[in-house]
Amino acid sequence: MDNQIKRKIILEDGSEFSGYSFGSGSEKLLELVFNTSMAGYQEILSDPSYTGQAVVMTYPVVGNYGINKDDFETKVPSIGAMIVREYTPIPSNFRSEKTLSDFMKEYDIAGVYGIDTRKLTMKIRDYGSCKVLITDGDVTKEEGLKKLSSFEYPVDHVSHVSTKKPWTTDNINDTSCLHVAAIDCGIKLNIVRELVAHGCRVTVLPYDSKPEDIDALKPDGIFLSNGPGDPADVKETIELVKNLKGRYPIFGICLGHQILSLAYGAATYKLKFGHRGGNHPVKDLTTGLIDITSQNHSYAVDEKSLEGTGLKVSNINILDNTVEGVCHMSDPSFGIQYHPEACPGPCDSNHLFDRFVKMMRGESINA
C-alpha cells in the first residue's frame, strides 16, 4: 500500500490530520466536503460535480470492490482527492479490473487513508466546508497555511468539464423517439442513459451553446445538467435558459435546477456544508410522498427569492427544509435539486424522467 508513505491534510483553520498515501502523491489545494454514501466510490470519483473538491467518505472501508469499466459517470474524472478511514488494496469483485489506487494515480487524484474521518466529518459539519491542503507528511502547518491563504476557489469549473463539441446517443436517428437537447455543465452519463431508457434520443451540447444552436435541432425538450461550482458563475447557460424558457419544456437536475431558477429571476446561496450522500429524505409537496434521494451540491435556491418569478416550491428537504425542487406555474419547466438517476444512491425518484417525457408530449403532469 505505497509502503505507507506519510501524508498530511491541513485545513485553513490550522487543523492537521495525518495519514498515508494512496492514489496520486501530488500536492493539492481543494475544497473539503464529505459524502455519506455507503457504496459507489467509483461513481463519486467520476462525477464532474466533485471537480476541485476533496471528498471525505464517512463509510469507513473504501476500495474493496475495485474499479470496473461500466460504472463511470464521465470519461475523464476531475475530482481532486478522496480521504478515507481504511483503504483496501486488494479488491474482491468479479467485475474488478484494477485497484482504486491505480485508477487514482492514472488521473492524478490524491488519496489519504488512516485519517479519523468521523472527527474530520464532524468538523466540516460544525464549521462548514473549507479550504484544504493535501501534502507530504513533513510539511509544517505554517508552510501549509501560507499556501492556503493565497488559494482562491476557481470559478471556471464548468468550462473545463463541459463537452467541447456536441455529441449524440446511438439512437439519434430513431425519429420515433423524443429528441432532448442536453446542456452539459458536467453531465453524469447515467442521466443520458436514463433519458435513452425513457424513450429519448439525446444531443449533448456545450454549456455555452447559443439559442440558435438549440433551435436548429428542433428538440422536443431541453435538459439542464448537474455540474460543479457556484451556479451564478455559469452566466452563459443562465442567459441561454432565459432565451429558451417558455419556448421548450425544460428539466434541470442539481446545478441545472439552480440555473433554471436563476434564469427566472430567483437567487441561490451556498450551504454551510452541502448535501452529499444517498440517504436524504425529500418531500413532494404535491403528493405528500417522501423519496430517499441521492444528492451532491453546495448551493441551494433561496425560497424567499421565488416571489414574482412564476416558480413555486415543489419539493423540500425533510432534514433542513431547503428547497429541493421548483416548477413554473405556467411554463413547462421544472427543476430538481437531487439526482433521480442516482449512481450511487436509491432510485426512488426515477419517476421524474417519466414526468419530463409527459411534459414533452404535452400530457398533464399534475405539477
> Which shape, going by the Cα principal axes?
globular
Tell me the CATH superfamily of the largest domain.
Class I glutamine amidotransferase (GATase) domain
Question: Mind summarizing the main beta sheet?
Answer: 10 strands, mixed
The first-to-last residue Cα distance is: 53 Å
In short:
The protein is 22% helix and 32% strand. The protein is α/β, with parallel strands linked by helices.
List keywords for this structure.
367 residues; alpha/beta; Glucose Oxidase, domain 1; 2 domains; seven-stranded mixed barrel
Task: Provide an overview of this structure.
This protein is of the alpha/beta class. It folds into two domains: 2-150, Glucose Oxidase, domain 1; 158-360, Class I glutamine amidotransferase (GATase) domain (Rossmann fold, 3-Layer(aba) Sandwich), CATH 3.40.50. The protein has helices at 41-45, 100-106, 117-127, 141-149, 157-161, 189-197, 211-217, 235-244, 255-263, 351-360, and strands at 6-11, 16-23, 28-35, 53-57, 61-62, 81-84, 86-87, 110-113, 130-136, 167-168, 178-184, 200-206, 221-224, 250-253, 268-284, 290-301, 311-317, 323-328, 333-336. It has a ten-stranded mixed beta sheet with strand order 10-12-11-13-14-19-18-17-15-16, with helices on both faces. Strand 13 (221-224), helix 8 (235-244) and strand 14 (250-253) form a beta-alpha-beta unit. Helix 8 (235-244) packs across helix 9. It is globular, with a radius of gyration of 20 Å. The protein starts with 5 loop residues before the first strand and ends in a 7-residue tail after the last helix. The model has no long low-confidence stretch (mean pLDDT 96).
